[in-house]
Amino acid sequence: MSWVRAPLVTPKTVDMDKEFKKKFLMNRDDTGRFVVRSLKTGKTYFVETLDEGDRNDWGDLDPVTKKLTGDYGLKYKGSVRPEESMITVENGFDKIHTLGPGESPLDYINRIDDEYFEKMN
């Protein structure tokens, strides 16, 4: 059984490089990466789903033989392995939050964004 983590990050105060953003969002359906921009605080949150397990049991079920065919394994899984993560200190991220299985990244973003908003006022 694999479990999934979603790091949520706030970039440094300087704007992230446009090339980095483009690379981060490339093949986003396959990688599960997305960016959320808060209308309340103006902060940008980068979200990336990490998967530490293998999906060897993912493919097409043959209706005649009832066997799994077309093992897609690492293809189209909507997440990246931890070593493929682009959310690192080296890439300019100063606050990296890792969520546990089943936690909503969007709910977490709302909560920490509310905290930032309170500090602004």
Determine the fraction of residues in helical runs and give it as a percent range: 10-25%
Order of strands across the widest beta sheet? 3-4-2-8
The quaternary state of the protein chains shown equals single chain
What is the rounded distance between the termini?
A: 45 Å
The portion of residues forming beta strands comes to: 15-25%
Listing every helix as H and every strand as E from the N terminus to the C terminus, the arrangement reads EEHHEEEEEEH
Question: How many distinct beta strands?
Answer: 8
Shape: elongated
Low-confidence parts lasting 5 or more residues at pLDDT below 50? Answer: 1-5
Structural class assignment:
alpha+beta
Tally of individual domains: 1
Task: Please tally the helical runs, counting DSSP H or I stretches of 4 or more residues.
Answer: 3
| Largest beta-sheet characterization | 4 strands, antiparallel
Radius of gyration: 17 Å
What is the strand and helix layout of this fold?
Blueprint: E1 4-5, E2 7-11, H1 18-25, H2 28-31, E3 34-37, E4 44-47, E5 50-51, E6 60-61, E7 68-69, E8 93-98, H3 105-120
Antiparallel strand pairs: 1-5, 2-4, 2-8, 3-4, 6-7
Features:
121 residues; alpha+beta; 4-stranded antiparallel beta sheet; two-stranded antiparallel sheet; 22% strand; disordered N terminus
Short description:
The protein is an alpha+beta fold and 121 residues long. It contains 3 helices and 8 strands, in the order ββααββββββα.
Verbal overview:
This protein has one domain. The chain has a four-stranded antiparallel sheet with strand order 3-4-2-8, covered by helices on one side. Strands 1-5 form a two-stranded antiparallel sheet. A two-stranded antiparallel ribbon has the order 6-7. The longest helix is centred in the C-terminal third of the chain and has 16 residues, at 105-120. Strand 3 (34-37) and strand 4 form a beta hairpin. The chain has three helices and eight strands. It has 121 residues and is α+β, with helices and mostly antiparallel strands.
